[in-house]
Amino acid sequence: MPTAPATPPEGPLLARVRQSIAEHGGWLPFDRYMEMALYEPGLGYYSGGRQVLGAWPADGSDFTTAPELSPLFGQALACQVAQALQAAEAHTVLEIGAGTGALAEQLLQALGPAVQRYLILDLSGSLRQRQATRLARFGDRVEWLDALPAALHGVVLGNEVLDAMPVQLLHWDGQTWHERGVAADTAGTSALVWVDRPTPLRPPVLQDLVPGTVVEIHPQAEAFVRSLAERLHRGAAFFIDYGFPEAEYYHPQRTGGTLMCHHAHRADADPLQQVGEKDITTHVNFTGIALAAQDAGLNVLGYTSQARFLINCGLADLLQAADLRGRAAAQKLITEHEMGELFKVIGLARGIALEAIGFSAGDRTHRL
């Protein structure tokens, strides 16, 4: 069983994690640990004031996102948002997890008066400050929320949001399923170690898994989609993230799951090190998201790659109008070895008739 090989210095977040482990009988399920590492008030990766988002390690950031790479991302997405707003007869956009505010800025510029209210729900106080500075010129059209509103009429957006929602880890030893959790090293160091416990939990797909396989399940992300569905009375939601349909997600060859960490624009697979100093993420099971949405009363508008979605939304024309540097940056959004194929887009809706332009060609809903 893998363990954390080094003994890290014990900062306040690590001390809090160890305290929580003790309070829970010496073992924390991974989803609770991931939640603390990312979102513990004032201490977590997203809640502790870190730079997080940027273009290069030199700016103190750990990763970048599509809106940071190119403004053409938001300009193309604006075509889909405009179509959905018109179908819903609405003027409100809600963005979940707005990062630095780059996407909000791009959409507000592109959509103009079509958006009268731009709502942002973000758990990070430091990112809220960056968003407020960046979006100040849009005045009171931009509002920040602390929770989902009771009722929504408009368009909801989430770019790289679902991947940051805590997951549970399951380990198959060839005979028994175990839930993987976190414990304190019994040797008396401040290190954290993996500990497995038998569980009745199962992944949604069981197909000749190799002993030693570790997989993720996503009850929090699916619960979030159901909660959103309860509030979206009329409109559409679009989520953009890296992930796979269920059959690919739980393929027998994917023995190590998709759990990954990011720090200084480098990736590693050990979330027990540098607690609170790096991002912890997993790919999205888009089949689970689609089923949760349908069970809660939403319709699936479509599902496709980011490249196909952006091209359907007019990115090719935007590229022709861009300069050489702008074209080079935007190519990363659609090339297969960058973001074009790994990232997917799923569209959901309630109460509107919409043939979403983003899925007009290359729709893969049949693969979910």
Description:
The protein has 368 residues and is α/β, with parallel strands linked by helices. It has helices at residues 12-23, 30-39, 66-69, 72-88, 102-111, 125-134, 219-231, 246-249, 286-295, 306-312, 315-321, 324-331; strands at 28-29, 52-53, 61-63, 92-96, 117-121, 142-145, 152-159, 168-172, 177-184, 192-198, 213-217, 232-244, 260-263, 266-268, 279-281, 284-285, 299-305, 343-350.
Helicity, as a percent range: 25-40%
Mean pLDDT: 93
Please work out how many helical segments DSSP would assign: 12
> What structural class results from the helix and strand content?
alpha/beta
Main beta-sheet annotation: 8 strands, mixed
Query: How far from one another are the termini?
Result: 33 Å
Number of strands: 18
Overall 3D form: globular
Run of helices and strands: HEHEEHHEHEHEEEEEEHEHEEEEHEHHHE
Secondary structure elements and pairings:
Elements: H1 12-23, E1 28-29, H2 30-39, E2 52-53, E3 61-63, H3 66-69, H4 72-88, E4 92-96, H5 102-111, E5 117-121, H6 125-134, E6 142-145, E7 152-159, E8 168-172, E9 177-184, E10 192-198, E11 213-217, H7 219-231, E12 232-244, H8 246-249, E13 260-263, E14 266-268, E15 279-281, E16 284-285, H9 286-295, E17 299-305, H10 306-312, H11 315-321, H12 324-331, E18 343-350
Parallel strand pairs: 2-3, 4-5, 4-7, 5-6, 7-12, 12-16
Antiparallel strand pairs: 1-9, 8-9, 8-11, 9-10, 12-18, 13-14, 13-15, 17-18
Helix pairs in contact: 4-5, 7-9
